[in-house]
Amino acid sequence: MSSKKVSIIYNIKDNASKGVNKIKGSVKGLTSSVLSSAVGFAAVSAATIALIKDFADFESAMIDVGNLTNASRDEVNKMSADMIKMSTTVPVSMGDLTDSLFDVVSAGVPAAESIDFLTTAAQLATAGATSTKVAVDGLTSIINAYGLEASEA
């Protein structure tokens, strides 16, 4: 084979190798982008699922409170809105607040006074470095033992 033909073959091979390497680099970049997007999507999906679960738990707890107090749908909706508002003013999780609200109404605090009572208990818990559940238990025990009204807590 002549040296000119060999030179042409090597040039073709070199150019083809460069093209293949560019394609490999592009595929690696695309794969990396797809994986990054998939990881991001998975994280957003997990957060969304957790948020939906938290909302469903809240909704279920408020229905339980409504059933226990024989509250109307409008009253439960108002208590729900009040709970959401309260959750922005006290450093207590919504799950703890809804569990404690159930304990408040179970102890005989009227539904109309339950949110104010729970707010007092959450503030007491925060100041006393304890849980809202413990504060609710203490306050309800005191008002029941001394025959006080919930508004006197």
Roughly what fraction of the amino acids lie in strands? under 5%
Low-confidence stretches: none
Structural class: mainly alpha
Radius of gyration: 32 Å
Could you state the oligomeric state of the chains shown? single chain
Helix-strand sequence: HHHHH
Main beta sheet strand tally, sense and closure: none
Which features characterize this protein?
82% helix, 153 residues, mainly alpha, elongated
Structure description:
By secondary structure, this protein is mostly helical. Helices cover 82% and strands 0% of the residues. The protein is built from 5 helices and no strands. The chain has helices spanning 3-69, 73-87, 94-106, 111-127, 132-145. Helix 1 packs across helix 2 (73-87) and helix 1 (3-69) runs parallel beside helix 3 (94-106). The longest helix is centred in the N-terminal third of the chain and has 67 residues, at 3-69. The mean pLDDT is 79.
